Amino acid sequence: MPxxxxxxxxxxxxxxxxxxxxxxxxxxxxxxxxxxxxxFISWLLRNQPWWLILILSYAVGAFACHTLFVxxxxxxHNLLFKKKTFNSIAGMIANLVLIFPSxxxxxxxxxxxxxxxxxxxxxxxxxxRWEAALINNSVIGKTIWLLLFPFFQMIRPARLxxxxxMDRWTAINWIVQFIFMxxxxxxxxxxxxxxxxxxxxxxxxxxxxxxxxxxxxxxxHGEQETNSYYGILxxxxxxxGYHNEHHDFPSxxxxxxxxxxxxxxxxxxxxxxxxxxxxxxxxxxxDPTLSVFSRITRADKEKTEKKKxxxxxxxxxxxxxxx
Length: 323
Hints:
disordered C terminus
């Protein structure tokens, strides 16, 4: 993978990068704050008009939810605590106000995204072929795709191999989430629930923050596969815009990614990057040269290796038949 190659070269040239590896347990405080914030705002909206719920979910709730998604991402890489169990629990707490159970599943599938970047059979970040063909580069299609992006992501893991869809931790995540949401709906009512749902929907969809999915691996700068974003929204994004840096060194927590960029500035400064999510969002929707197909995909290495083994065996098998 290109990022592994980059990482080896950078470590050799800048050995001080190793000092950035580690954990950031303070991320858990961000989780507690964002979850509490969403619960507080949703409770205040229980008797408010629907239009206020819509505005606040887009202008406020989406940012809190996106931060929680990034925190779940940090938990997936075990960047909060030393014990994986504590990271999984922290991820499930962050998941509480995000409606659907996803933190444990994300951990399983996201790590495959790093190790098998661009391989359709392993990388859940790669759209289905029918999904890409359905949307293509239509303005309306791309708008709907962004709006419904969370649901497209939910169904992609069904095609992935070598990953058990349901295991003990996934079941715990589902049970905890369904119990929490059941109690929340019963105690708070439909308006606070609508606020949480819309906040979730906008946080990774038709919203400037939703442009992060385009920024990360869409071919917006020629053949450069991974792109970083250096803009003001990295505050709520927890520096996840530093995506080249993250893919090169996924063992570095979010708060140290700017330091990584500074250390290896000659390399990272030479790469193309984005500075505005809003501009990127509109570009993706209106630019006919950008579509859901605008991704680099790779051949499945396992299939290729099997074919090589089979082709190597075939002449031997023919000789054995003749003998």
